[in-house]
Amino acid sequence: xxxxxxxxxxxxxxxxxxxxxxxxxxxxxxxxxxxxxxxxxxxxxxxxxxxxxxxxxxxxxxxxxxxxxxxxxxxxxxxxxxxxxxxxxxxxxxxxxxxxx
Length: 101
Prior knowledge:
Helix content is 44%, strand content 27%.
């Protein structure tokens, strides 16, 4: 059973990350890197409180968790977690989070 749901915005983030890595390091490296995200998603679903609460976002239930140079934004939804966004840590987080894709 899947322990998480990936939002359309997060799916787009992951696609762009894959494209970036594949272009620079190759398809195999990109695939391996993206799988690390999915492993992190399952870990977060097992321990939803692992991330830090993001206080400056409208939804008080939003959390973030680092994976390498990236931040995974998520929140608990019923018995699963919703992966909301996956953003590079050097981006202006609030602006990038609400940016239209």
